[in-house]
Give the backbone structure.
Amino acid sequence: MKNITLFILISLVHSSIIAQKTSLNNIRVLYQKSATDKNSCIQLNKEIASVQIYEDAVLYGYKAVSKMMMANYVTNPFTKLSYFKEGKKMLDNVIDNNKTNIELRFLRLCVQENAPAFLGYNDDIDDDKKFIKLYLASLKDFQLKTQIHDYLK
């Protein structure tokens, strides 16, 4: 009986890990689509709306950048700025607490390289590029490694 219970417990944990990884992969795909597709951006925002910084730093990072990306799809300049500032604050906060996370640094690099210059959000481009290039080879996540490599080309 103990063996069956242990087997079920291990299976549940393994399934949870696989589901979480699949979820992150889906979030990454939605993130990429969100740059040019409003519906993908809205869907991304909905899927990670409840994520908190203490639950999953990477998903919270995607939540932050999805807020900033929503600024691309609204017309009111005050709403645009509000989305951007809120996402910026969230992203900087999660990176401050996870300075060695390559995926978070990659997200910030993408935002800073694509944000309009007048927003003044470009101070970390060089540091993030150096950090990413230094640790990219040691990254174990093939999908993320490919995504970053393709972006840096």
